[in-house]
From TrEMBL:
Pfam families: HTH_5. The keyword DNA-binding applies. PANTHER family: ARSENICAL RESISTANCE OPERON REPRESSOR ARSR-RELATED. Residues 15-107 form the HTH arsR-type domain. It comes from Lacibacter cauensis. This is DNA-binding transcriptional ArsR family regulator. The keyword Coiled coil does not apply. One of its GO terms (molecular function) is DNA binding. The lineage of its organism: Bacteria, Pseudomonadati, Bacteroidota, Chitinophagia, Chitinophagales. PROSITE patterns: HTH_ARSR_2. Keywords: DNA-binding, Transcription, Transcription regulation.
Length: 107
């Protein structure tokens, strides 16, 4: 005859899975070698246009634009429109938030 052990009552899981998914997308945005290079390049220059980025990194324009869109959706870069140009700058406040989040995860 099998004896079953009485289950202990565990607290409910209260994770906000939507927030978890969003956090993972933000971390994934900066955990990519090319996007890290783009961030470094923008940071060193202060601000750059997509044209300056793809020329300096020798990329196709569409590739640079796709990666910038990912960084922009994660609020890691900010944009400013001046006439027909869109200037990209690093959002240092956001990077500091991400750094603090990572430190809290790693203890």
């Amino acid at each position: 005859m099998a004896v079953t052990k009485k289950k202990e009552s565990n607290p409910p899981i209260t994770l906000d899975y939507h927030a978890v998914k969003k956090s993972a997308l933000i971390l994934r945005a900066i955990n990519h070698k090319l996007r890290q290079q783009i961030l470094q390049l923008i940071n060193e220059s202060g601000q750059l246009t997509v044209t300056e980025i793809y020329v300096k990194l020798r990329l196709e324009q569409s590739v640079a634009s796709q990666h910038l869109a990912i960084l922009r959706r994660s609020n890691i870069v900010k944009t400013t429109r001046e006439g027909k140009f869109i200037w990209y700058t690093v959002n240092h406040d956001r990077l500091n938030e991400i750094e603090q989040f990572i430190k809290s995860l790693l203890g």
